[in-house]
Amino acid sequence: MPVRKIQVGQVWKKSGTGENYLVTKIYSEALATYAMLRKAGAEEEARLRVKVERAGDTQNLPGFIYAQEAENF
């Protein structure tokens, strides 16, 4: 589910598992933007690096659903 802008502190649900992930960092590298995600409540686990997809004026994390828009949050 695309959003206007991905920001630090947003919560995204992983498609398939329904696990919540917190956006901890957004950064640009060459011509791409990446988001660093960590599993909510699991500070010790490894972080995920996900390339941000852009479509017009919206952004999306492939394989994730914006949790604030989900009914089960």
Describe the 3D structure.
There is one protein chain. By secondary structure, the chain is mostly beta strands. It has one domain. The protein is built from no helices and seven strands. The strands form two sheets. A five-stranded antiparallel sheet has the order 4-3-2-1-7, with no helix packed on it. It starts with 10 loop residues before the first strand and ends in a 7-residue tail after the last strand. The model has no long low-confidence stretch (mean pLDDT 89).
Number of domains: 1
Low-confidence stretches: none
- Termini Cα gap: 14 Å
Note the total helix count: 0
Residue-averaged pLDDT: 89
Strand runs, count = 7
Question: How do the strands and helices of this protein lay out in sequence?
Answer:
Blueprint: E1 11-14, E2 20-29, E3 32-39, E4 48-51, E5 53-55, E6 58-60, E7 64-66
Antiparallel strand pairs: 1-2, 1-7, 2-3, 3-4, 5-6
Core attributes:
73 residues; mainly beta; five-stranded antiparallel sheet; two-stranded antiparallel sheet
Could you write a compact summary of the structure shown?
This protein has strands at 11-14, 20-29, 32-39, 48-51, 53-55, 58-60, 64-66.
